[in-house]
Each structure stands twice: as C-alpha cells, then as structure tokens.
Design brief:
The protein is an alpha+beta fold and 141 residues long. Helix 1 packs antiparallel against helix 2, helix 2 crosses helix 3 (39-49) and helix 3 packs across helix 4 (55-67). The chain has helices at 2-13, 21-32, 39-49, 55-67, 111-121, 137-140; strands at 37-38, 71-74, 82-85, 90-96, 102-104, 128-134. The chain folds into 2 domains: 2-85, Winged helix-like DNA-binding domain superfamily/Winged helix DNA-binding domain (Arc Repressor Mutant, subunit A, Orthogonal Bundle), CATH 1.10.10; 90-140, Dna Ligase, domain 1, CATH 3.30.1490.190. It is flat.
C-alpha cells in the first residue's frame, strides 16, 4: 500500500504540481479503497478523514491522477465512472453485461500482443487496461 501511495504522490510532484495535505488525504483514501470507487464515494471517504477537503478538490485530484496515467476511469454500466489504480502498469477485468459484476484477474495474456503491436507500430506501451465483456456464470444460466 505504501508503494502505491508513493507512486501516486510522485506522479503529482514529478509533473510540477504541489502535493498538498488535501491531495495526500485523497491519495490515501483512494489506495485504501483498492480502487474501483466512484468520485462521490471517494469524496465521502475523504470527508470522513479530512472534513476540510471539498468535493471539487477530489474531482480535480482524480483528473490530475488520470492525466498522469496512474489512475483510470472505467465505466461498468452503472452510470458513474469507477476509478482504478494503474500503479502496476496494467489492470484486467471480466465484466458482466447483465448484473455488472466485475472480476479482476492478475495473469495477463496480453504480453505477447503488446510486444507484437509495439514492434509493428514502433510504439512503446507503458500500461494497458484489459476489459472483457460478457456474462458471468450466474447470468449465463
């Protein structure tokens, strides 16, 4: 968890922004949530630990972290974006189109595809988000 906090914090300072106490509280709450949290849910968590931090500060900090590539929004069909941590450089989901269940998995089969595409298009891949959509076992029956 400390490593993720450091990566997110460094992404702010390395891009010329100040790491304020408000931003630090937002980062800590985001990491403690393990990602997969909406901006409103994050604002509520932050408000509980740092009441002085406003909702717009949470939104602006999430936007900054997204610009830096360490957080990404995903849309699970529930309306609001959920924010996920990209501190490991990749993130993988199976997403049920019917009940909106999200199953995370670690073993990535995209490594070979990443290498092929990098070579073919002379493009350096720095991270990836893999989402596969379909029906979970409960909904497929």
């Amino acid at each position: 968890m400390d490593t993720q906090i450091k990566i997110l914090s460094d992404s702010i300072t390395q891009n010329g922004h100040r790491l304020t106490t408000s931003r630090q509280a937002i980062i800590e709450a985001l990491v403690e949530s393990h990602g997969h949290i909406t901006a409103d849910e994050l604002a509520e968590r932050v408000r509980q630990i740092a009441p002085q931090v406003g909702r717009m500060t949470v939104y602006r900090t999430l936007e900054l972290l997204c610009e830096n590539g360490v957080v990404r929004p995903i849309y699970q069909g529930t309306g609001a974006a959920h924010y996920i941590l990209m501190t490991d450089g990749s993130h993988h989901h199976l997403m049920c189109n019917r009940c909106h269940t999200v199953i995370e998995f670690d073993n990535c089969f995209a490594d070979e595809l990443e290498k092929t595409l990098s070579k073919q298009f002379e493009f350096k891949v720095t991270s990836h988000l893999l989402e596969l959509h379909g029906l979970c076992s409960d909904c497929a029956e």
